[in-house]
Amino acid sequence: MALVVLLFVPLFVGSGYVLHVLSFGWIYATLALGVVISYGFVGIPNMSQATLYGIGAYVAGDMMIHFALPFLLAAVIGAAAAAIGGLILGATALRVKGNYWWLITIAVTQVMFVVFNSWTAVTGGENGLLGIPIARIGSFQFISNANFYYLGLGLVVIVYVLYARFTTSRVGLAARAVHADETAARGLGISPGAIRVVVMGLAGFGAGLAGAGIIAVAGFVDANSFNLDFSFQVMLFAIVGGLTSLRGAIVASVVLTYLTTQITSLVNYQLFIFGGVVLLSLLVRLYLGQGRRGFRVNRRAAAMPEVVDTSPSAPALIGEPVPAEAGVLVDQLPPDLPRKSRTRPWR
Amino acid sequence: MAMMDLSRDRPATGEALLDCRDVQVSFDGVIALAGIDLSIAPGEVLGVIGPNGSGKTSLVNVISGYYRPTGGGVTFAGQRIDGLRPQQIRALGIARVFQNLRLFDNLTVVENVEVAMAVDLARTRGVAQASVGAMVWRRQRRLRREARLKAVRLLEDNGFAGHLDTKAGSLSYGQRKEIELLRALADPPQLLLLDEPTSGVSRAEAEQVGERIALWRERTGCTLLIVEHRLGWLFDLAERIVVLNSGSVIAEGLPEVVANDPEVRTAYVGTRDDH
Ligand SMILES: Nc1ncnc2c1ncn2[C@@H]1O[C@H](COP(=O)(O)OP(=O)(O)O)[C@@H](O)[C@H]1O
Ligand SMILES: [Mg+2]
Predict the structure, then answer these.
(1) Domains by residue range for chain B, with CATH
(2) Residue A108 sits in a domain of what CATH number?
(3) What is the value of pTM for the model shown?
(4) Which residues in chain B have Cβ-Cβ distances shorter than 8 Å to A176?
(5) Would strands B94-97 and B79-80 be described as parallel, antiparallel, or unpaired?
(6) Where would a tag sit more exposed on chain B, N or C end, judged by fewer CB atoms within 10 A?
(7) What range defines the domain where residue A59 resides?
(8) CA of A175: how far to CAs of A40, A49, A109, A293, B124, in Å?
């Protein structure tokens, strides 16, 4: 339903500029979806989306420039390259735990920014990738803003469908288990490393497709498109969207992209405004609970009487009473604590 | 301290399912296990008791692969397993339940069991646990549905029909303990390690857990190693008891013999549980 509405947007939005901005919004949304599956589902704070996106863009662009490959083929190759990048990232960091993921993914992004900026033969160095041909599928050329809008929308739909398949698959379920308690998951026979590698590969694939999208829409990229700031921005989109919600990430990305680029006369204040919008939306979320649906759920949870374990502690060795297990305390948390995830976290 | 062998009915070696030989574990000089020799025969129910800090959990951690022994070795069904990772050991057929609750609190009750079922199904079908195929191929997607059905059936059979879609974290402590046990049984293990399965639950709930374990054992012939503080409860269930102290086995034998052994009583058991 929502998709049908979105398909008709270009017919009613006269402004080419708005459509142009929205096409960027779709591409950023594609990247934010990767954060949802990697950070939201398996718990990898993925600050390398910009790098994977860059790999996709440069590889796809080079395929079109130097090998005159058609756009679709170049996009698939770019996405495959970024997927391999994601697999490598996931595999090299197998022994990494918790917060070190932040360090690793941030460091990779910083290093790769320098590589992108200096490997002139592949990336065009500081001049950026010049001479990217117009993207075409068959004889159809992507030239108008409406074309770009549909291209972006198509990409986000493809990646959304793929990631939704992930979240509803047994791999997505195992990922949530690993995220919740890695030790217990291993005890059930789950290999957290294998799950992480696959998820990072998937994140890379989506980011690579987004990279191919951006070269078609923007016609030009340089290393500044793939820096740490951008990774951070994509991370914020995903967090504002609820982190475990694919749809939330899409909405947050498009809305925030639109709002921040709308204020053209205040270019210098763009980051300031971006920050303000993020803050505002977080406040809204905090006061309304976890988004629309979460609001109702939370109210119901608060109204429910708390289950408190009143059983006596185990009568064990006489003369040596066993203290109640620490776990019992969990039942006694105040009812207004936000739940970690929603009833259907993949929606 | 001299070791007293009070067992009469079983040979120490032979066709043991699990065999620990001189297992040692230490942490920066703190000795958790000081050379444990222990074997479990197929189908046996072995109880492990000992005061706090005597090394019971460490022993379970070694067998299930969470601790790598600093000395000695562990053999399961004729295969050396020390040094394997927990997920590999689980795949060989050793399941464990943790002393402190380790359910996935923000997953639903059925998802907690389903995830274990799915791992098992993938293994028996010979498909990768994590792959793109698991997401896109219909045959593989069916596998999750199958896992869910099996999980639902197991939970319904055990009185959790009304809680399938409840978040595991919102159930009572006793219920969560039961579900953790069911989750370990989802993929029927050959050897089940239970670390204080009744800690923190009421006496009535403990009885229920005991019945469940006994029933399960009757049905599957599963071998059990049970660490437990409730001695009366354990002595009803176990066929043989091993007593640990300071990381060593200090006594071993039939429950009633161990329970009445004066040295064990004075040193570790105090007065016997009236239960
Ligand atoms: N991971 C660990 N790090 C440091 N010391 C440990 C660790 N695990 C166990 N120990 C020590 O080993 C001893 C045995 O502990 P444990 O096996 O938990 O005993 P029990 O389960 O019988 O109460 C204790 O002194 C404990 O402090
Ligand atoms: Mg213990």
Answers:
(1) 1-93+191-275 (3.40.50.300), 104-188 (no CATH)
(2) 1.10.3470
(3) 0.82
(4) 104, 106-107, 111
(5) unpaired
(6) N
(7) 12-262
(8) 10, 19, 24, 23, 20
Give pLDDT tens digits for A11-44.
Answer: 667 677 788 888 999 999 999 999 999 999 999 9
Burial class of B15 by CB neighbour count within 10 A (0 to 12, 13 to 18, 19+): exposed
The answer to whether residue A95 is domain-embedded is: yes
- Gap between the Cα atoms of B111 and B157, Å rounded: 16
Summarize pLDDT for B56-97 with one digit per residue, the tens.
999 999 999 999 999 999 999 999 999 899 999 999 999 999
Q: Establish if B85 touches chain A: CB-CB under 8 angstroms.
A: yes
Band of the pLDDT at B47, cuts 50, 70, 90?
A: very high
Contact A315 B273 (CB under 8 A): yes
Among residues 63-122 of chain A, which lie with CB inside 8 Å of chain B?
A: none
Q: Is residue A200 part of a domain?
A: yes
Contact A290, A338 (CB under 8 A): yes
Residue A118: inside a domain: yes
**Number of domains comprising chain A:** 1
Residue at A278 is within a domain = no
